[in-house]
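#onboarding

Welcome to the new folks! Below is a worked example of what a typical request in this channel looks like: someone posts a single protein sequence, and someone else replies with the predicted structure as tokens. Don't worry about understanding the tokens yet, we'll cover that in week two.

Example request:
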Amino acid sequence: MKNTLTTAAALLMTTTAATAGGLDRGSNNYSVLFEDGNYVELSFSSVRPDVSGDYPAALGGGSTGGMAEDYNNFGVALKYELNDQFDVGLFLNQPYGANADYGSGVYTGLAADWASSQVALVLKYQATPEISVYGGVRSIESEAEITIPDALIRGGLAAAGAAGNATAAALAGGAPAGTLDYSAETNSDRQTSYIIGAAYERPEIALRVALTYETGVTHSFEATELVAAVPTVSGTSDFEIEMPQAVTLDFQSGIAEDTLLFGSIRWAEWSVWEVRPAGYEALTNDRVTGLDDDVFTYRIGVGRRINDDLSVFGRITFEDSNGGEASRLAPTDGSTAIGFGGSYNYNGIKFTGGVEYVMVGDATDGSGVEFADNSALAVGLSIGYQF
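Example response:
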């Protein structure tokens, strides 16, 4: 029961729709470290978000149109048994991401893209039959692009002018139409994060509790910024973006014959994340975007073995809402998701598939645009082989 169900359930555990909270798109499937013998797994997920908002009358009313683009994730996980006590794991995936693009109303032209890749190497030590510890490093590479339309920059400057900033008022009223469009593109930056964890197991009842801590990283970017009407803003600037540290508690236990209860609790410090290029801050005295709260994610599910080759599972995921002002580039607040899937062994190859429907929490941004009744659909597939 342990091998048939646990890695199957972990497919959906490590694939998220990333429509709420931070920019999390996938995490390392550390359950692979507990597979018997040597094991390799290829995974693929595809997410189709449906996120839109309604402008207030002051902004002309109407819909923003769909602003969250579809995306796909790929991953590889390898576990190799060095001896009876030591195992090593290798993980490759895309941990973070964002794809926002507005095509209707005042926000037309507001777009952002965050791309990342990760390689992680983890060593696991079986200290006793019940207790193991593991640790390693993650190398994370990220880059970003953002464009902000003239109307939003001009509106922000007009508001600053109304508050007494004469320079901002003059620029908002005097710059020709279209010359306040803002764009920024960063270089690619790679940084190192560390992993440490411990697990307690009782294989006879399929019990395992694992606690994993991943340190955050601070990307040091060089951005190329451009605002046609403000040459002093245009050019290159250096700035930093903090990525969150995270703590995850994973658990599983047999609760009846051929039946497994599993779940996780994850905290990620997304409150440290903000995008604040020097040129944009000098122009607006503000950041481009950011998140004000940490993210707690709770998951619980049940797996059931049908026979020696076939297992099915289902889970529920809940992410806390925090209230407050939502970012235009991540206009959600919490979520509830329902996922289900199954795993089938065929000639030593394990095929696992799952689907998850996410009900995205309602949110309102700083301009009063209301994002409500949004959702996302995620599907995942993995192929595992023990050798």
